[in-house]
Amino acid sequence: MAPINTANVVFLGLGLISGSLALALKRGGWVGQITAWGPRAPSLERGLALGVIDGYELELSEAIKGSDVLIIGAPPISTGELLARLPALLKATDATPIVTDMASMKGWVIDQMTDSYPRFVPGHPIAGSENSGVTAARADLFDGREAILTPDDTTDPEALKWVAAMWESVGSRVTIMSASDHDAALAASSHSPHMLAYALTKALDADALSPMRHGGGALRDMTRIAASDPVMWRDVALTNKESLIDAMTAVEAQLSLLKALIAEGDGEQLERYFTTCRSVRRAHDAVLNPLDSSVITQLSETNEPDKGQDTP
């Protein structure tokens, strides 16, 4: 396998995440070719003009020739469709590149590659933005963020080692876990928060008082991710359905409990509930804000109740 910064990398699909990874590799001094494939030229042309990639190809069979690594940067269902096609295409060209993906669920995606290919390393960087497209790509998107890899017993150890080293080279910390654990954990930590943001936004939109016009920081933070790519989140909901429903059911139970405490006027229990939640959130600041230098200061502050109010 080529050294970590000399490999010829081909991105299958070019958007926010794949474009950001390309920029992050270049920032680290990548000297191998970084090219991309896509079914349509406009986003590829933008990526080339912005210096994100060095070239592009519109024919998939041509794109994979001479590649050392194929990185799939597409919505989940499109990722699965590509994985279903790749083994036959690679066999036809006698190519054996490392293949990895960046989809936010793993079980369904992995199952689409029905032909065995040991050099496939399923992956998911825990980074993103409500913005989409290659024009939103940022070289620092993965700094301090987690990248989860979900190999199984058939995964080539050298391919796994290479993909892990690639993510570490762009500033990520790598976690290895099973695909099923990944999907359950991400349903709770990422997928259900997006569904909550969509539901909240829809409820506000249906309110005759148009409360969105009077929102402050809380509403901004809670609805930011409702501006995310609808195609990607449609795919997430469809392909991680069971884990997502379980996660949403757990949140529904907590909402029901809160409604009951509010209805009963139980101030003592409400304060205890809110205090517990504040402690849980603050205990994870270093994970959720890995590059924020103020986190250490925040964690050392007094535990006295906050006096400030939410402002626009």
Characterization of this structure:
This protein is of the alpha/beta class and 312 residues long. It has two domains: 9-177, NAD(P)-binding Rossmann-like Domain (Rossmann fold), CATH 3.40.50; 178-248, 6-phosphogluconate dehydrogenase C-terminal like domain (6-phosphogluconate dehydrogenase C-terminal fold, Orthogonal Bundle). The protein contains 13 helices and nine strands. It has helices at 16-27, 41-49, 60-63, 76-93, 107-111, 157-169, 179-206, 217-223, 230-239, 241-264, 267-283, 285-288, 294-300, and strands at 9-12, 34-37, 55-57, 69-72, 98-101, 120-121, 123-125, 146-149, 173-176. The protein has a six-stranded parallel sheet. The chain has a three-stranded mixed sheet with strand order 7-8-9, with helices on one face. Helix 7 crosses helix 10. The longest helix has 28 residues, at 179-206. The radius of gyration is 22 Å and the shape is elongated.
Largest sheet: 6 strands, parallel
Q: What fraction of the residues are assigned to beta strands by DSSP?
A: 5-15%
Total DSSP E strands: 9
Any idea what the radius of gyration is? 22 Å
Q: What sequence of helices (H) and strands (E) makes up the elements? A: EHEHEHEHEHEEEHEHHHHHHH
Which strands sit side by side, in order, in the main sheet?
3-2-1-4-5-6
| Structural class by sheet pairing and helices | alpha/beta
Euclidean distance between termini CA atoms: 53 Å
CATH architecture identity of the largest domain: 3-Layer(aba) Sandwich
What's the CATH superfamily of the largest domain, by name?
A: NAD(P)-binding Rossmann-like Domain
Anisotropy-based shape? elongated
Tell me the CATH topology of the largest domain.
Rossmann fold
Please write the CATH class name of the largest domain.
Answer: Alpha Beta
Number of domains: 2
Low-confidence stretches: 293-312
Instruction: Assign a percent range to the helix content.
Output: 40-55%
Q: What's the overall average pLDDT, rounded? A: 90
Number of helices: 13
